[in-house]
Write a structure and sequence with these properties.
Elements: E1 6-10, H1 46-54, H2 74-89, E2 98-101, E3 111-120, E4 127-133, E5 139-143, H3 151-165, H4 169-175, E6 179-185, E7 194-199, H5 205-219, E8 222-227, E9 230-234, E10 238-245, E11 248-255, H6 264-285, E12 290-294, H7 302-305, E13 312-316, H8 319-331, E14 337-341, H9 344-353, H10 356-362, E15 367-372, H11 381-387, E16 392-397, H12 400-410, E17 414-422, E18 432-439
Parallel strand pairs: 2-17, 7-8, 12-13, 12-15, 13-14, 15-16
Antiparallel strand pairs: 1-5, 3-4, 3-6, 4-5, 6-7, 8-9, 10-11, 16-18, 17-18
Helix pairs in contact: 9-10, 9-11
């Protein structure tokens, strides 16, 4: 038994000998499933029932597996997280007030991934499909509801499982057999969702798509199927997010299987904050200054910031994100951005050496600001050295440990002007920090790299 969930069994491959979902009969009769090892029968536990009573039936579990999910104590948990960050940075924050932006305590997550298992209900003896979570080979834990996810995703979760359970014959063989996992991608307004079905066996084009199209129409979603080397789509493989940022309505295409911010509300708060910082920079130094935007992704920040600078040079390595960024700029009428597909590490190395096509490209700009949004590994030495040449550095970090190392290096050349913590990942140890640094030397509006 695991607190906060129902123990299903050890994590393993599904759609294989250890698969919790047995193959469907294609005889046309309703399949009578056998539950193979390593799963164990499950039923309603005392903790499960108490959670329903305490929450008025809204939440099925007392804890979200692998999260410290306690919405009644969210404010306290977030305050503790911010305090730990402040203490870890110590004297580097001297003279700067650390501010913080809390998340909604529930229904904030727009991307979710689950394993799929079969289990026998101890009370009824019925076999049913369930969403499960596991962490690095730990026990699988059934998730009958997921209150950190959007209401739309919570609504879809049981509907999808019931649809899959009801499949018979050829439909079950095409859609349910070998199903390893399911991913959900939604939007803040709840009008758009993509469900991705992940298989441990090859999926067939026409047969799978024919049956899944029925599922997509019934649930009102798009469905993507993935197996090794194969991707099939019923509908479309992206969602469209719309929100007001910096006083303007902005639209983004967010592609299934590529990075997008999972916490839409905090993503908007982060964009508003960065727009405010850039407005201050522009009012002080003039809009004619240019922006270098590294790790730009799908143009999440590029689009709203483009109006605050003369020109923008944005760099991203992922092909699908580059294409999404290009479409997002066209959709939003952005015409002052040069988008470069390149490894940011290689691009920064060229800038540092002041040689090669990277330097030639950047030399046409008159930069005042650099925006970096690196992965958790932080900035490499080349990018750190390049950033040190800029008058203004905006650093978005999802790892306080690597940010601390990079900030220590940048404080040799820059002063810290602002530090804000955003709770992108409630009930975990992770958060996102946005810092603004300004070069120590007085005077000089822009920097050539």
């Amino acid at each position: 038994m695991v607190e906060g969930g129902v123990l299903v069994g050890k994590a393993g491959r599904m759609g294989s000998a250890s698969c919790p979902i047995p193959p469907a009969s294609t005889s046309g009769r309703r399949t009578r499933w056998r539950l193979p090892c390593p799963c164990v029968p499950i039923g309603r536990t005392r903790a499960h029932s108490n959670a329903n009573q305490e929450s008025g039936g809204e939440l099925a579990l007392a804890r979200i597996p692998y999260h410290d999910y306690r919405p009644e104590r969210y404010d306290e948990i977030f305050r503790d997280k911010v305090r730990e960050i402040e203490e870890s940075f110590g004297s580097m924050l001297s003279g700067v007030e650390v501010t913080a932006q809390a998340s909604a305590p529930t229904h904030f997550r727009l991307r979710c991934r689950f394993a799929v298992s079969a289990s026998v209900d101890r009370d009824t003896g019925e076999t049913r499909l369930v969403h499960t979570l596991f962490d690095r080979g730990a026990d699988r834990v059934e998730v009958s509801s997921f209150p950190i996810a959007s209401r739309q995703i919570n609504d879809l979760m049981p509907r999808l499982m019931r649809h899959l359970e009801g499949l018979e014959g050829e439909a079950a063989a095409q859609v349910r057999d070998g199903l390893d996992a399911v991913h959900y991608l939604g939007t803040m307004r709840g009008r758009d969702v993509v469900v991705t079905l992940i298989y441990g066996r090859p999926i067939q084009g026409e047969g799978w798509k024919r049956e899944v199209t029925k599922l997509a129409e019934e649930l009102g979603v798009s469905v993507v199927g993935r197996s090794k080397g194969v991707k099939l789509v019923a509908g479309r493989d992206y969602v469209v997010e719309r929100m007001a940022v910096g006083g303007r309505d902005v639209t983004w295409k967010q592609v299934e299987g590529s990075f997008s911010n999972p916490n839409g509300g905090i993503c908007k708060d982060t964009m508003d904050h960065i727009c405010e910082l850039c407005e201050q920079i522009s009012s002080r130094e003039g809009r004619e200054g240019d922006l270098l935007d590294l790790y730009c992704g799908n143009g999440n920040y590029t689009v709203p910031l483009s109006r605050l600078f003369g020109r923008v040079l944005s760099v991203e390595i992922n092909d699908r994100l580059v294409e999404a960024a290009r479409e997002n700029m066209e959709q939003n009428g952005v015409d002052n951005v040069t988008l470069v597909r390149s490894d940011c590490l290689k691009f920064s190395a060229g800038l540092r050496a002041r040689a090669g096509p990277e330097h030639k490209c950047a030399s046409r700009f008159d930069f005042s600001t650099i925006l970096v949004d690196p992965p958790r590994a932080g900035l490499d030495p080349n990018t750190l050295e390049v950033a040190s040449r800029f008058r203004n550095v905006l650093y978005i970090s999802c790892n306080a440990d690597t940010l601390r190392t990079c900030l220590r290096a940048l404080l040799r050349t820059h002063d810290l002007r602002s530090f804000r913590v955003f709770d992108h990942f409630p009930y975990t140890k992770y958060s996102e920090c946005v810092v603004h640094l300004e070069r120590k030397e007085a005077g000089g509006r822009a920097n050539r790299v």
